[in-house]
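User: Let's play a game. I give you a shape written as tokens, and you guess the letters that built it. Ready? Here's round one.
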């Protein structure tokens, strides 16, 4: 709903916010008291063209209504752009975690990753198969070579000792 200029004037708003009259012009000190900031802050905001000002030197004046609007816009913009280092760090961590998750999904879909449980199961199966085949060697060799029982038992003992040594070495490597 758009109000006509007379209604805007009645409730104290300028129908034309860019228009100023001499009664609307105030000093930096007066603006500072109105906005609750120092007059040097008002002057700095004016120099940086954040607040509108008229004149130069000692005769600088500020159109009050335009100045209040400009200051409110400035604060709104400043607030919208304000990102604390902690917030920025948190956003970066979330972004990195999401990127890593997507990369893992892509790698899995492309077949570049294997499921750890499937790999473990395959290795356990291979190790069990290898163990049973190695333990069968002394019996097969004894039958083919007509070895006596003590010799076959010695061969069996050597294979078992070798497997035990491998298991011990693996246990030491696996320790954190």
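Assistant: Ready! My guess for every position:
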């Amino acid at each position: 709903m758009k109000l006509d200029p007379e209604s805007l004037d009645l409730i104290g708003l300028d129908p034309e916010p860019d228009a100023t009259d001499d009664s609307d012009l105030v000093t930096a000190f007066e603006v500072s008291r109105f906005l609750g900031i120092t007059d040097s802050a008002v002057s700095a905001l004016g120099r940086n063209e954040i607040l509108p000002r008229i004149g130069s030197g000692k005769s600088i004046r500020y159109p009050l209504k335009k100045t209040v609007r400009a200051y409110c816009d400035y604060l709104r913009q400043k607030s919208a752009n304000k990102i604390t280092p902690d917030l920025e760090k948190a956003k970066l961590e979330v972004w990195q975690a999401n990127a890593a998750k997507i990369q893992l999904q892509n790698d899995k879909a492309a077949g570049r990753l294997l499921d750890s449980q499937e790999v473990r199961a395959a290795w356990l199966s291979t190790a069990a198969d290898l163990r049973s085949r190695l333990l069968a060697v002394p019996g097969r060799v004894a039958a083919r070579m007509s070895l006596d029982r003590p010799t076959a038992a010695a061969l069996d003992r050597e294979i078992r000792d070798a497997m035990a040594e491998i298991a011990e070495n693996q246990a030491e490597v696996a320790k954190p």
